[in-house]
From TrEMBL:
EC number(s) from the headed UniProt entry: 2.7.2.3
Catalysed reactions, as listed in the record: (2R)-3-phosphoglycerate + ATP = (2R)-3-phospho-glyceroyl phosphate + ADP
GO molecular function, one term: kinase activity
Pathway: Carbohydrate degradation; glycolysis; pyruvate from D-glyceraldehyde 3-phosphate: step 2/5
Positions that bind substrate: 22-24, 37, 60-63, 119, 156
CDD domains membership: Phosphoglycerate_kinase
Keyword Glycosyltransferase: no
Organism of derivation: Actinoallomurus liliacearum
Name this protein carries in UniProt: Phosphoglycerate kinase
Subunit description: Monomer.
Top enzyme class: transferase
Cell location: Cytoplasm
Family recorded in the similarity comment: Belongs to the phosphoglycerate kinase family.
Keyword Lipoprotein in annotation: no
Amino acid sequence: MSMSTIDDLGDVRGKRVLVRSDLNVPLQDGVIGDDGRIRASVPTINKLADKGARVIVCAHLGRPKGQVKPEFSLAPVAERLGELLGREVRFATDTVGDSARATVDALQDGEVALLENLRFEAGETSKDDAERGEFADRLAALAELYVGDGFGAVHRKHASVYDVPQRLPHAAGGLIAAEVDVLRRLTGDPARPYVVVLGGAKVSDKLGVIANLLGKVDRLIIGGGMAYTFLKAQGHEVGKSLLQEDQLDQVRGFIEEAAKRDVDLVLPVDVLAATEFAPDAEHEAVEATAIPADREGLDIGPRTRELFASKLADAATVFWNGPMGVFEFDAFAGGTRAVAEALIASDAFTVVGGGDSAAAVRKLGLDEDGFSHISTGGGASLEYLEGKTLPGLSVLED
């Protein structure tokens, strides 16, 4: 299946083009914590504006659940987007109302507007097709063409992602095209050894992706909070560490399946066990098979960092999703840093799967160019690797 690109839309000069971007950045009291997603959306918007289109950007922020909540306003994002684009961004104070229509009507060729948070409208995320469709009609009425570029939202059956492109001639933006190319490389015929590194808090978030990848990878490395459920499934004491009791049977099944398929399943051999969940918690490195009952593992230990790095050294393809520990606390960021640095040092095609992993790379001050690709969509990447059909991609395919 192929997707149309912006070039396939023909001459866009003077045309109103609605671009669905992903501008869902961390925002605290109007201050943007990490503008990675805004930066990733810039090339597509600039390309259209340079071609003389009248660009109408739409996006969501957080989960205001269909209500107007000032703390979720995209106003600070409009300002940052303008700085990064190097051109003024006009901001509409609503999504499909009077301000949106007036702002769009005032656009000249090559100018850019941003609509207020899509999720202030209940119709954007509604499960009811008619309610979603009605909102999609109003959004589509603002434009003549549609460009889907919000990769982080393509796994959602939302109005701006799924229904609007069915109402307008459409194409995929450069960001979505790049993300899909990368995911096809990971799922098609990846160069081997193919190693997947999974971390993060919950096994349950990664069940589908583990099940699907066990038949495709040579090696599966498990760290982060989810590792404790694997250790417990092998019969080890995990103390007060994060544990998903209800996933133990499933995980035992994965361990057996990995052995059957000759997949090298790599688990921590030591962990940093802390007295409490706190940045300054007293902690020590202990055997992963003997975590004291009154302690909780908050990061992989020094021997595990070396083990994981050695298991990545000869890889040809690596997909990494999820931190190895509580990287937000400096004392427990070393495991995540070690994996990231091993990826940077390797000659492999390395993909960081969005979400917390991408945030960790930036928080730890690592060179983003050291990786082949940093995805902008954690959940979307995982669902693609699970083999699911993503609504926002399927509607862009011809």
